[in-house]
Input
Amino acid sequence: MSTLVTGIGELVTQDLALGTLTGAALVHDRGVICWVGPAASAPAADDRVDLGGRAVVPGFVDSHAHLVFAGDRSAEFAARMAGERYDGGGIASTVAATRAASDDDLRALLARRVAEMRAQGTTTVEIKSGYGLTVDDERRALALAAEVTPETTFLGAHVVPAGADRDAYVKLVAGEMLAACAPHARWVDVFCEPASPHAFDADEARTVLEAGRAAGLGLRVHGNQLAAGPGVVLAVDLGAASVDHCTHLTSADLDALAGGDTVATLLPGVEFSTRSPYPDARRLLDAGVSVALATDCNPGTCFSSSMPLMIALAVREMGMTPGEALWSATAGAAQALRRTDIGVIAPGMRADLTVLDAPSHLHLAYRPGVPIARAL
Amino acid sequence: MSTLVTGIGELVTQDLALGTLTGAALVHDRGVICWVGPAASAPAADDRVDLGGRAVVPGFVDSHAHLVFAGDRSAEFAARMAGERYDGGGIASTVAATRAASDDDLRALLARRVAEMRAQGTTTVEIKSGYGLTVDDERRALALAAEVTPETTFLGAHVVPAGADRDAYVKLVAGEMLAACAPHARWVDVFCEPASPHAFDADEARTVLEAGRAAGLGLRVHGNQLAAGPGVVLAVDLGAASVDHCTHLTSADLDALAGGDTVATLLPGVEFSTRSPYPDARRLLDAGVSVALATDCNPGTCFSSSMPLMIALAVREMGMTPGEALWSATAGAAQALRRTDIGVIAPGMRADLTVLDAPSHLHLAYRPGVPIARAL
Output
């Protein structure tokens, strides 16, 4: 069953050959785009949708989110806004609430969060474990996440659980826990942040990532969030698909990123919600680094699921143009997931389309906070 | 026809006696709240709505918006984000587009914008003229605005039209234009900003405001947006209901506000969208000044209609607690409009209620960008 989409005010394809089109139409069939071109020469289709002049962009790709959790840390947020400092320690309260929740409770929360994202234009979301921190709880989180997305990430190395022996925990993560989780995961990730007593140093991170790679998983790293550290260089060295946060970068980090094929994923909602300085996206772009934007949606440091807000923050705070920010939220984030079937609107790509209640993509930054984006 | 509302997770009344309640219910009848109290002792009603644990707050009061306009300045926005400076000059392009639009075009745009606000939890909006700048175009803007809100504001003194003689224009605004507009307006306002060549100085502003007062209108002032200036002191001196922006305040301005009964209305969406320093709400609150929050929704300096984003920015950027920010977006903004029937949930008040898809009001700042608020 094919559908012709017309009345597209602006079509941002992110395809190098097609570019950004006005007066364009497209046809999709069984979830795949089969034609893009001038509306006047559109082929026949079984069905037709007219968008009345609205802009169409690739569905947002949220390549970093922690959606398998129970409980709420709004009180911690309010305390932080009143001056308390974040060091990753609050994760323990989410771990307790998540372990206590039933499968069905977590399933309902996940479904609600994915629907909330879709209603804001996100069509692909990566989901991490990391609030279980036992073999059974991590495996359960990934099995539940795999019900709603193929982009599942094993993050047993999120924090060292309260009271655990560090070395024993790293061994567990890289051994028995990985073995239980790998069948449900596409990726392995580590919170590499020596500045936090709860997170992992470079050697610990390397142990977990190399074990994950040996188990067939792709690599991702949380790095350089709270301070400059070894995360970025480690990620590039191991060929990780993405290193996320990149808030504090040295020139050596920048050189490593520019010379490798690891995407720098920026999460400006975290800086917004922790009142921290923003990463310097302009510096990364000017050095030729591929930059992605994602929400990091999680109950502690950024409980936003809004990719449009991330785009607006990237423009306001990080020196990106509206076009660069949109690229990073679509094609760039697809690259951060090593996906070649999403993030771009072109024949053969998935028909993941987001409609803006606006005539152009500029409105994503021009109309901050206004819910103008939705998945078609 | 009375309606009982139950299943309220948290009820923020903004009423000094009632406070913030859990386990509460309320009854409204023909648009007025007639009972608030513990759910267990709720009276019978004709109808019943269960909110499933969602929080309820007073409908947001957006006390500063410029909604009667045509056209789009997204390209100007993108240029400004790339480094160009704002001095109020871009208003001319909106004036041209607005004059060229038909009544029905403007009516449709207004209806769409008010609906967009309502869908985000705003139940009262003030609407200014100011994109007509001729007797007929200003009168038309106010007549159209009066179709959708009682809070209409004559802002002929928005800018001096391109090519006009300043003195002659001020005389027109305070004379013939005011006479034509006053029947459709509740308020008169002036963009008092000597730092901008397009706006008005203290003497010009006083002339317009005193004429408006003589015509029976209440007073509002745009003041101290681009630099410290005479706007705040003038507003307090004339007993204006509100002085809006207050981005650059001297200690004399602070003293004047603390000693008067003029509300300081902060518009952080403007600072967000013009990449300017934010006003210091904490300093105002600590001095005992009543602070309101509004969007300033307009095509030039802030095309956001999102009161939740203003709350989130007030918490992130201006030192307000989530509770203070919510007060300023409801009861404080009602005070800025000298309204005693809105902004508070209590018997006798209008049943303007906003429901949050969240268990508490903290989520307005904790979940930035996520559309969790809607008018009931």
About this structure: Residues 9 and 53 of chain A are 4 Å apart (CA to CA). Chain A touches chain B at residues 72, 74-75, 77-78, 81-82, 116, 119-120, 269, 272-273, 275, 303-306, 308-310, 312, 315-316, 321-322, 359-360, 362-363, 365-371 (CB under 8 Å). The mean pLDDT of chain A is 97.
